[in-house]
Design brief:
Four copies of one chain form a homotetramer. By secondary structure, chain A is mostly helical. Chain A has eleven helices and no strands. Chain A has two domains: about 70 residues, Homeodomain-like (Arc Repressor Mutant, subunit A); about 130 residues, Tetracycline Repressor, domain 2. Chain A binds a DNA duplex through helix 1 and helix 3.
Chain lengths: ~220, ~220, ~220, ~220
DNA sequence: TATGAATGAGAATTCATTCAT
DNA sequence: GATGAATGAATTCTCATTCAT
C-alpha cells in the first residue's frame, strides 16, 4: 500500500513500518511487565490492571494486544523460550566434551542467575501443568530438545573417558532438576553476580561424573 | 447437652477426649483435602467449597476449623513440615559418614517420590515467597535446620576422607536445590516406585564428591 | 432424610418443605422483577443488579437461582408460557363454534390487556429470534399448538356455516398477528379495563368472517 | 466548511455539490448498514464497529457523520419514516372508498413484506418506548397521522354503505395493530412475494367490516 | 477526511466470609 | 456443631468515544 521500494532510510519507512514497530514495542512492554508479576503472584493473583499499570497503560489497552488474560500468560511463558534456547545453545561451545559441558553449565547457570523471574514463572507452570497445559507443553518440548542435546554430549564425554559411564538420560534429567532446583533455593535476594553461582556451576558438573575430579571442584 | 461439668469420671472424660479426637480428625481431613488442591491449583484457584467437598463437608464447616482461607493454607503448608523433618532425620542413620549420607539421600528421595503434592505445594510457596511470607519463612527455617545437619555430616565425610574437600555450605545448598528440582522434572506421571528415583538418589550423591566414585554410580 | 410420614400439618413440613417453598418463592420474585425490566429495556440494557434490586436482594443472590443472565432470561420468557397456555385454553369454552371463538378471543384479549409486560417480552424475543433462539423456539412451539387448536375451531365454524369458508391456516395466522399487534399499538398507558379492549375483541372476530356480521360488531 | 455562498460558477458549484453528495451517500450507507443490525440485535448489542464494518469504513468515521450512537439510532429509525409515509400515501389511491381501502392495504402489506428489517426496528422502538422516547414519539406521530387519514377513509366507506357502521377510530387502531402484528408472526423466512401476503391483505380488509363480504375473501 | 490506538466506565460473574436455622 | 443462603468486593472483559496522525 505505502511505497516501500528499496527504502531503508527511516523517513520512508514511516507509515507502515514505524507503526508496526511501535506496536511490537508496546506488546513487549506488556510482556516485560507481566513476567515478574505472574512469577511473583501466579496467574490468578495477578490482575490485568496491575500489569497494565506496570506497563504504563490503561487496562483496556492490554486487550488490544492480547485476546484475554490466558493468551497474555501463554505469551509471557512461551515467547521467551526462544531466547532461552539460544542462551542454552550447544553450538557455540568448543573444545573436548568436558570443556564443552563446562561451558554449557556456565551458560545455563548464568541464565538462571539473570532470569530468576522468568525461571520462577516456568517452574510455576510446570508445578501446575494440569492448569496450564498449553504453556507446559511448550516448556516441556523445549526441555526435551535440550535434554537430547545434553544426552549426546554426555555420551561423547563418556566415550572420551572424561565422564564415568552411566545412563546418560538419567544423568541429563538429574542435571535439569538441579538447574531448576538451585533457582528455588539460592537466596532470592542474592546478587546476580554472587560467587555462589560459580560454585553452583562447579558442583553441577559433578552430576555428570567427571573422571578427573579436580575438574569438578573448579 | 454437651455439659461435662462434673467430668473426672473416666466415662465423661472419654466423651471429652473422643470429641477432641473427632475434631482433630475432621481438621486433618480438611488439610488432607486441601494439600493436593492447593498444590495443583495454587491458592486463589482453589476454592474453599472445593476443599470442603473433597473433605466431605459443607464449606461453612471449614470455617469452624480455620479462621480463614489464609490460615488454612498456612496450616496446610506448615504442619506437614514436622513429619517431613522426621522423615529427613539424621538421627536414625548409622555407619560411617558416606553411608549415613547415602541413607539420608535415600530417605529424602523416597519422600520426594511419595509426597509430590506436598512438595509441589512447598515449591509453590517458595516460588511466591513474597506473597506467602509466613509459610515461606517456616519452610526456609526448616530447610535451614536441615542444611545445618547436612553441613555437619558433609564435614564429617570430608574429614574422614570419604568426600572431597570443599565448601560444605555450598554443597548442601546444591543438594537441596537438586532434591527440589528433581521433583519438578521427573515425569509427573511416573510411578512412586519407579527405578528412576533410585537413579536420582545415586546421582545425587555425586554432588557431595565421594572420593570413591564407584559409590556414586551405585 | 427428615421424617415426612403422612404429614400435611404445616408444622411437620418444616425443614425440607418449607425451605423448598421459600426457595421457590425467591426464585419467582426474581422472575417477577425481571419480566417488566427485560420487557422495557431488552436483554442487554437490563442489569442483573437492577433486577436484584427490584427483587429486593443483592445481585450475587440472583446467581444462586440462575446460572447466568441468559438462563434467567430464558426462564423469564419460557416459564410463563405455561400460564399463558392455560389462559388461552379452548377446553373451557362452550357453545357453538362462533360462541366458543368469541370466548377464546375474549380470553386472549384479556390476557393481552393484563400482561402487557410479558407480551412485550415475547414480542421482543420474536423480533430478535436469531439472538434468542432457545426462547424463540419455545414461544413458537406454543404458538404453533395454539394455532392448531384455532384452525380446528375455525373449521368447525365454517362447517357450521357460522364462518365464511376460507383458508383456516391463513386466518389463524392473521388472528395471531392481530393479537400480537394490538398489544403494540393500543396506548400503553391505557387502563387494563379500558373499553378499548372490548372493542378490539369485537373487531378481532371479524378476521374470522362471521356470516352474521352483527355478531362482529358486538 | 460547507459554505457555498459565492457559488454560482458551475465548476465550483459542482465541486461543492459532489462533495455534499458523497457525504450524503456515506451517511446513507451507514444508515443502511445500521437498520438491519439494530433490527436484529437491538441497540446495545449492535456495535458501532459492526455497523462501520458493514458500511465499509472504520468505526472512527461513523462519528464524523453522527454525533453518537444514540443519534445514529434515532436517524436510523426516523428518517425512513418519510419514505414509509409516501408508501402509505392515500393520495394516489382512487375509486370508491372500499376500493381505495383495498389499495391502501395492499400498499401497506407490500411495505411490510419488503421492509421487515425496518419494521422490526420500529416495533423494537415501540416495544421499548420508555427507552427510546425521541424515536418512539416520531413513530407515534406518524402513526397518528396515518390513523387520521384512515379514519376519514373509513367514515367515507361507512357513509357510502360499503363498510358497516362503527367506531372508526377503534377500527383504525385494530388495523394498525394487525399490520404490525403480521410482521411478527408470518414466518420470517417467508419470501417477500409469498402469496401469504396477499392472503393477509385480504383478511385485513375484514377488520373494516365490508358489507359485501365477498370482497373480503378476495 | 479517515483511521484505529487508547481510554475508562460499566456489566457479569465468582467466591470468601458471615450468620440464621 | 453443621449447613448453605446471602452478601458484596473484586476481577475480567467490552465498547462508545476521543484524538493524534
Amino acid at each position: 500500500m505505502t511505497d516501500q521500494s528499496v527504502s531503508s532510510s527511516p523517513a520512508v519507512d514511516s507509515a507502515g513500518v514505524r507503526k508496526a514497530r511501535i506496536r511490537e514495542e508496546r506488546r513487549q512492554a506488556i510482556l516485560d511487565a507481566a513476567i515478574p508479576l505472574f512469577a511473583a503472584n501466579g496467574f490468578s493473583d495477578t490482575g490485568i490492571s496491575e500489569i497494565a499499570q506496570a506497563a504504563g497503560m490503561s487496562h483496556g489497552t492490554v486487550f488490544l494486544y492480547f485476546r484475554n488474560k490466558e493468551a497474555l500468560f501463554f505469551s509471557a511463558v512461551v515467547e521467551p523460550l526462544r531466547d532461552m534456547e539460544r542462551a542454552f545453545s550447544f553450538e557455540e561451545t568448543e573444545g573436548r566434551p568436558l570443556q564443552r559441558l563446562q561451558q554449557v553449565i556456565a551458560n545455563h547457570v548464568r541464565f538462571v542467575a539473570h532470569h530468576r523471574d522468568y525461571l520462577r514463572l516456568v517452574q510455576y507452570v510446570l508445578g501446575h501443568y494440569e492448569r496450564f497445559q498449553d504453556s507446559a507443553t511448550e516448556v516441556l518440548a523445549q526441555t526435551e530438545r535440550y535434554g537430547e542435546s545434553l544426552v549426546a554430549l554426555i555420551r561423547d564425554g563418556q566415550r572420551a573417558g572424561q565422564l564415568v559411564p552411566g545412563d546418560a538420560h538419567a544423568t541429563a534429567l538429574a542435571y535439569l532438576g538441579y538447574i531448576n532446583g538451585i533457582g528455588l533455593v539460592v537466596d532470592v535476594r542474592g546478587n546476580q553476580e554472587s560467587p555462589i553461582w560459580d560454585a553452583m556451576a562447579g558442583l553441577g558438573l559433578r552430576l555428570f561424573g567427571p573422571t578427573n575430579m579436580s575438574d569438578g571442584t573448579k
